[in-house]
Amino acid sequence: xxxxxERPPEPLDFFIWTVEDVGLWLEEINLGGYRQIFKENGINxxxxxxxxxxTTEQILRFIRKCHMKWGDFITLCKELRxxxxxxxxxxxxxxxxxxxxxxxxxxxxxxxxxxxxxxVVSLKLEP
Length: 127
Prior knowledge:
This protein is mainly α.
């Protein structure tokens, strides 16, 4: 992988993160020990975003599946919340992902901004 691809993913776009992006983010938040197990379980940004709707049973299943310690799970949830708040406040700039061709930059940024607006509604409904 090139150095460019090893940069932590853009938080605003966490819902489109690949499994690799999630792994880089885990390293950034000092949970890199879970990178491989998350990869093996196919945990991507869409999965992380859906975690806010998990029932207690689903949370326990996730913790067992990923062999997570409770404290690490709490850290994961706090960091996810931090990203969502940054998204709500518009603190993260929209950037074309590394895998998208440069000719689609404008298209991607417009789509990401529309997506951000629709996600703001669901974020405001979270406890």
